[in-house]
Amino acid sequence: MTNREKIQQKLKYYTEIKLKENGAGVIANEIAEALGLQRNVVSHYLNELCKSGVAIKTNTRPVYFWDTEIINNIEIDEEKKEDKDPFNELIGFDGSLKEQVDQCKAAAIYPKHGLPITLTGESGVGKSYIASLIHKYAIYKECIDEKAPIVTFNCADYANNPELLSANLFGYKKGAFTGADKDRPGLIESANGGYLFLDEVHRLGNEGQEKLFLFLDQGKFRRIGETDKWRRANVRFIFATTENLDEVLLDTFRRRIPIFVDIPSLEKRSISERLNLIYSFYLKEANKLGKDLIVNKSMVNALLSIKGKGNIGLLKNIIISSCANSYRNKLDDDILHINTQDIANNFKNVIKVEKNVYHENLHIIRKEEKYKKVIMKNIDENPIIEESLKNIHQIINMANKCEMDDEKFKKLTTLNMNKILNDVAFNKTKIQSDIITYEFTEKIVKNALEYIRKNYGIKCNGSTTKLMSSSIMILKDMKYSDYMTLSEYKKCDEILKNKIPQSYIIGNKIASIIEENLDYENKNILRLYLSLYINCFCINESKRCNAIIVAHGFSTASSIASVANTVLESFVFESFDMPMDTPVSTVVKKIRGYLQNVDTKKGTIILVDMGSLRDIYKELKSVVKGDLAIINNISTQLALDVANKIINKEEIESIVIEASKNNKTEYKYYKSENRKKAIIVSCISGIGTAEKLKEIMTKCVGDADIEVITQDYNSIKYQDNENKIFKQYDVKLIIATAGIDRDDVPVIEMQNLINNEGEEKIEKALSGVVKEKSIGDIKNDILKLFSLQNILNQLTILNPNKVIEEVEKIVYKYEYELNTKFPNDLKLVLFIHISVMMERLVLRDEIKSHPNENKFMECHSEFFKVSQEIFEDILKEYRVSLPLGEIVIIYEMIQARINIK
């Protein structure tokens, strides 16, 4: 089980316990301690789960997490109460608004007084309605009394009169101002025990926000004019705004609101949800009018195509006016027929029917007292799926141009795959209309996944069969569109072969089984989708060497490969069975074809069963770019031994030597004549900073045939013949944040890289490896992307603009205390190092010790004291401490450039 899976499992476990006990969320430290992992590792994966919709979190300190799957299952009798859940009234609660609903529920049930929540979105998207549902849900969950109030206040009404606004919120004492003829309680007291909904909170000025600080923090306030006593109230807050929060709210106010929920506009909602909104609004009007309605299909298509700032509010108004016009013209009719002629003229400019997606009249029967969900028929578009596939196409192209690393590639593809799966899961019209085909598809998918499990050791979770079957049904009839043509799908296919080779192989195996049994027209869409599905949800694609088993017999190789893959639960071996009457040349041809379609830069190991196959190297060397090893006398024990070493990412030469020795067999090892060229990026403060610099450098080199890798500073500072990285790679250049003495590889200190002093070294390193991007373009990108501001923009937690101001003060204080002016290159290095260091401290990823600590304290205790004083303010602000090891590194960076005592 991977760390991600272990963390997700623990999150489920703790969420269930916490919800039953007191409703509190889970913090990263609890999971880290339970699993024996570092807190920052757990925090990283928890944030990944949040981005993929598996978990939700607050933006408080500490951050609390919940598993979304069980967030609604707090009470034992939950199933009995399910129909009473107020959010079930919200159209889209199980579709496009599912994540938003989960966040609203989390805010409502959080102990002891819920969490303040802000609803954002365009005017008319339903923020006020959702606020009312949060209030009802809190009552439903018995978090507040059933008679608890919800008080609504529109901040815009008093935006130009802050005194009157404060008086309304907090109340006032008699005589507090002109006209205050008696004591009057404010809205906070009126909302005691329940909710206060502040609409258009962006119109609440700075003074008003500041007055709410204390109440949000401590639950106490004073009426205007009171000075002698504090009042207390238990009020839950819901805020709503149409504006960008960063621009309209004070940072100190925003930090007190842990949950922000963005409500999508009407045009971003699925067609099925928009249809159901139309139906629900017409049903209300039918009951008001006392007449059944028939809404013409042309009218339905017109309403489905509405675009405008009014959103749901606009839709509702158009529907009401159409009913009014129809009623006026057909007063005596028992059934009102509504068509596009009933649309008021002032609304026609927001309607533009580009495509008919609904092909029958909509019948509204007023006797149906309850709203009844409408099943869409004859929909011939899937906007969410198409948009997500479009995004995936762009992501694949960016990855191919080296504009993002593997981690970001998986993160973004998973995000878009989740959008597709959500749409598939909650819009099953096609499946419901053709249940026989679905059942047949599900059976084929189940067999395909079982084949993958047996042969490749890949286990998929329980929902995979249904989700994959539903996806295949919906994707089956999708057409190639203008944004992604057939040729572009094929190009993506070629990229994925090299980008995610293991997932690509398995995805194509599943696709082949499906295509053999179903009449599947768009095979490229299917193969792209399945490859990404496997990569996102079923396998951790790892950059390791290839491994092949070749043996005589009808199933000898596949049986041994199956055992090894299944036991280790990882796709390690591909197998090639060789019937006795099959010539070696035929099998070699198949192996060549396989190796041509996978990345062989990390090398290839081939296990064979007899000597006649050991000589296949000559036939394969032209398609293998890395090292090649062939081991004779294959057995299950040998396969397990080799597979285990491959998973542990041991060097190929070490694997074959040890495995052959352990299993008393022979091997041949062929060293690659062409080692992969590489640029090493290293930082004196550790791998964390180096990884950020690597990401920038990778963008600079683009598609050049050279790899950017990170290495620990101390491991490469001195010439070390035992360092494997220099055996594995042809290292052309080292870029470091501090001096490194090597005579075998050119070294550029980062400040010289930025100042363009290392131009000659860069040209030499890139000679012969550039492709579409010229050396000149790469050098220009280095100058542009290695600017201070761009490097600081790699910070993920802290505000780079704020940090740079704080660090500037720190560097100035060092100059003052040391009575010297720092050269520009030292200032630059310190700016970058200290900025990234502060983020590491906040993330609890500090350097806990340094080998020179004891000697440092003996000789430079004064520098330690000075540093503690210099960092005192910023450490208090971020509530972190500065370990001695970090101070030692700062000292060494300064000492390397100027002589200090």
TrEMBL record:
Residues 544-679 form the PTS EIIA type-4 domain. Residues 90-324 form the Sigma-54 factor interaction domain. Residues 798-901 form the PRD domain. The keyword DNA-binding applies. Gene3D superfamilies: 3.40.50.2300, P-loop containing nucleotide triphosphate hydrolases, Phosphotransferase system, mannose-type IIA component, PRD domain. Keywords: ATP-binding, DNA-binding, Nucleotide-binding, Transferase. It comes from the Bacteria. SUPFAM superfamilies: P-loop containing nucleoside triphosphate hydrolases, PTS system fructose IIA component-like, PTS-regulatory domain, PRD, Winged helix' DNA-binding domain. PANTHER family: PSP OPERON TRANSCRIPTIONAL ACTIVATOR, TRANSCRIPTIONAL REGULATORY PROTEIN. This is Sigma 54-interacting transcriptional regulator.
